Each structure stands twice: as C-alpha cells, then as structure tokens.
Amino acid sequence: MKRFVCKTVFAFALAIFLFPSCANSASSDKPITPEAPITDIFVKTKLYSTTNLVIDNGSKDFGSSTAAQIVDSMKFGWNLGNTLDAYAGGSEKNGWAGRNTSLGNNTETNWGMPKTTQAMIAGIKAKGFSAIRIPISWHDHIDSKYTISASWMARVKQIVDWAVAENLYVIINVHHDNITPSTCTANGHKGYSPASSCLDESKRYLYNVWCQIALAFNNGYDEHLVFETINEPRLPGDEHEWNWDANCSTCKDAAKCVNELNQLCLDAIRESGGNNAKRLVMVPAYVAAPGAALASAFKMPMDSASGRLALSVHMYTPYSFAMQDPGETTFTNAHKGDLDYWLGQLNTKFFSKGIPVVIGEMGATNKNNDSERAKWFEYYLGKVKSYKMAAYLWDNGQWKVPASGSFNELFGYYNRSAQTWYFDDLITKAIKARN
Asked: Which of 38, 101, 183, 290 is deepest in the core (most CB within 10 A)?
C-alpha cells in the first residue's frame, strides 16, 4: 500500500498560511539566547548494546569552512522522500501503537518508492543538484535497549556513501520518530515527543539514537556530511500540532522541550569527538515552522564548537499556491510578498547574527501549471540565493494529476527508476536560480 507524507507537508503549510500573526508578534531583533546544556546523567546514559555496532573507522581531513560557507555551498538540494523515512504500522497522524519490525530493511519501499540505487544518487548530481537530504526513521529498527539494527545502519551508510562519492553535501536526521505523549511509555522506546510528560523517555531515546549515529558517521566524513537533530518536532493529535501559538501554554511547553531535545542531540554528537566535534548541525523550532523559529520561546542550543550551527525550517510558501487543493494556480505579486516577508525575517534574526538558514523542505504541488511553478521556483530560489541560504526540494514520487483532478500532494519530480525528470525544464530553471 502506498503511503505518502501528506499530513506533515499539508499541515505545516497550513500553519504558515493561517497563523502568520504569531511570527509577526515576535521580536526578530532579540538576541538568540542559547539553551542551557543538559546535565541529567539519568537521560544521558548509553543503554544500547555494544555488540554488532556499526563503527566508522575512516579518516578524512575536516575543512575549515564556516557554517555560513557550507550552507551557501549547498545551494539547491533534493530530498530522498518517503524512502528511509518510511515505516511499517501505525499512522503519521496518531503515531504507532507498537513497532512492526517484520519488514526489516524493506521499510525503505513500504511507501511506494523503489529501492534506492547508486545510479539514482548519481542522477541527482548529474542534473546539477549540490546536495541531498536523506530523511531517516529509526523506531522500526530499534530493540528494547535502544539498539539500532546493524543491518539498517549499514544500509543508511551505503546510501550516504554513494552521495559522498558524488561530492554532494548530505544531511541525515531523525525523521518520523515523533510520537504522541500518551504512547511515550517508559519501556516503549518508540520515539520522542516534545511534551514535559514524555521528556525523560524522549531524551533517553534521542540520546541513544544519536550516540549510535555518531559512532557510524564520524572521522570518515568531512564537512560534506551534516546532521539535523530532529524533523518537525510536534504534538501529534493536538489542536496545535501544526501551528505555533505564542499564547498557548501547551505550545510554550513544547517549545521548551524542543529546545532541550535539540541541546541533548547536539551534546551526543559533540561528545563523540573527532570530526563530529566540529560538524555542522541543523536544529529546528517547533514543527520546523518559521513563525516558531522567530518566536522568543525558541532558543538555539549552546555549542562547544564555534559557528557550527544552522537553523532548519520548512517552507511550502505561500500555501495557497504551493500546496492548497485546488488553491491558486497563478504565481502573483502577493505571493512574492509572502516569500519576501518570511525569508527576510529569517535572514534578519538568524543569518545576520551568524546562524545560516537551511530550508530543509520546499516545493509546489503540480496543478498542471508548469510555467507558473517555474516562476515560483525562480523567484523563491533567487531570494534564497540573495540571503545565502540553502533549500531542499521535497520529492515524494507522486507527480501526475489523477483523473479526479486533485492536486493534493503531487510533489514528485524525479523518476528514480529511469533517472529522468518529470518536469525537466522547471528543475533546470530552479537549479540555475540558486546556483
């Protein structure tokens, strides 16, 4: 059965469209105060088995590029969507009622995407992309001691290595491991939630996962490998799951928890030493929304490395054009104004203070409006270039408007099996706009 990352993309864009006042009320010129480091030994204990761990024994010199230089060099990237982030059982909206590990590494194709090949990755580079984001879900591959399957880690490493061989910048993360607070039990080890009621278990989960990722990816990878702590941290099922409200006590608690979870993930990465002591790490605000990042409740973590952090946001903007079904099909000056506002605010608060911005997901659903989408991509990525940000195209493999006429979630661009592009001219213009 095909599974699509629908709710993640749709609801995030809806939040941007319906709740701009939250960001408007935030003071964008406030100093970015770091979150205090985590000192709780209880949640920073390595509980995973040390048998059959995947260990990186490589050796690569780490360049001297700053975070801003690395992000600028990323330019325009592509997401390997609905692939290593796919999972078996449960639902994205309500989390999962228990792990189903019977699929093993076959979770990679469980949401309808073909198995990733080296030729696919080579095709990304051949088209002119500079980077790839590889979303990864881990919960279907973790045992009762938080130990990640060696087979799964090896598969992740294989795909990363193919991308590294193409000289692409590579982002890996913890993707669909966000669960409801009610399922975050002490012995469940199913994932994390940015809620105080689930915070200890969330910290144990993320600390153990990131410690193992850091063991598998360290000295064998230079600055082309980038870590992203968590993807769209949110409260599944909550009325504010996809939107930030500065006056909501639940949202305030979630923001505090996101700050602590980002800090813990960063601590685990830096503690592994070697190249990870200086690797670029991306961190999001609540649900990776720009409005939440601009709010005073969001804190960048404290870092032992200087100038090695970036903000991670997702922007399917404006919603009416980029995502809404049917929405609008013509790219207008008003839409340009929306992009100007959000990108300008992010630049003012973050890049101007030494923190580069990575738009980890963006795209416009196919509405049989290729020429208008091309205009959107060219304007959007031209602004991204002017602010020296990086942007990553979300690709879920679904591209053709069905007989029903629905435009919902048609974010497919790359024919992974044939290594061709469904909208070749559009993608060519998009790459040129950012390069």
From this structure: 290
